[in-house]
Amino acid sequence: MERIKLVIIDDGMDLTDFNRDRIIANYKVIKNEIKYMGNHGEEIKPYQKEFRHGTICESVLSYSALNYNLYCINIFDVEQEINLMNNLFISLRWCLDNKVDIIHMSIGTSNFSYFSKIEEIINLIIQQGIIIIAAGNNNDKLAYPACLPEVIGVRCSKKEILSPNEYIYNINPIDGIDIAACSPYDGRELKHYLNKDILLVSEISKCNSFTAPSITAKVCEFMNRGIKNIDDIKHELQIKADYVNKSMNNFTIQSEFYDQYEDNDEEIPVPNIVIYSEPDINIDKVIEALQTYFRDDKYNSVAISRSGQVCITKGIYVIKTKKVDKYIRDNVKAVYKLTDADILITQVYHVDEILFLEKKGLVDILIYCYENKVNKDIVNHYENLILLKSDGLSNSNSERIKLIYNQCINLFKY
């Protein structure tokens, strides 16, 4: 059986008592080039107080993964995020050129400015059939590439609802993280003698980074059985899951991540553009077009739609309900907290929802889409009001939508 080519992109590998017999091809990005560093990790320095992050990830992986050749790429010997991201792109390109099977990574970014470039190279990797497993952000922020639909995103379960080695598979999660798991290795100690008198000990802590390798081990198992397509692997993860969380479909967040936003009076310090449309007026194209204009101008805008399709890469999230949503304020806050948005666009179905948001200061601009006659109460009540007649919605790229975008920008200035 051909061995799986598995790459860990991290901060390198220590040569330890517990991995000394394992062959790990080590590489490092040095001055924009990947250099081969040998088949074992780096000697631990006398002053080191803990193992490298990559060492612990590899240790978790080794407990249950079989039949793989391991490659480790150290991208962390730089300062500043821009250099780290550059090293990440170099290492991902190396994975493409060397036709690896699996990429495991804990690194990600919540910095909107890198999203499009990450998405571009991830798409190339997926087209080549390479599987990517990525840990989510430990602060519950949107993280690229873990959130991407073609990537297997993993987080640890924070509440004591799972037993060791159990996991939840989330259907269409708002943050793109497919799996919440309980690693069987949480709390286990790794030990290495620096000399006969000094023992270095690190605990495998409960965090996303050290949970993700246990899922990578499962993916190795699937690939050894001939399951290699990303859709098939995700399907296998779903049917093997201890729990399948269908309630997360489109918007709902697992309670352990959503509770923090309920009844929270913390203000949202960014503009919220509320879009209200009369019944039977489809404004999906308006929302998507506004998103495009904002993002093309480098705004990290995020939209909450009520009828469109979820698209994390376009910053569009969906609440599928026709009823008055008294929790809409919490939903808006959850999306803001998740994405660190510069601008929010929130679609509402009912006037009551506008009032719910207005009471909390969450209506900065109101776009009112009407068919024939306007509601005078709305027109007279809101100062920052933009009117849009339904016959102006036929073309999402029309000059009318561009004009609305410019009106929003001008209102932000005052």
From TrEMBL:
Range of residues in the leader sequence: none
Peptidase S8/S53 domain residues: 5-226
InterPro entries per the UniProt record, alphabetical: Peptidase_S8/S53_dom, Peptidase_S8/S53_dom_sf
Protein name as it appears in the record: Subtilase
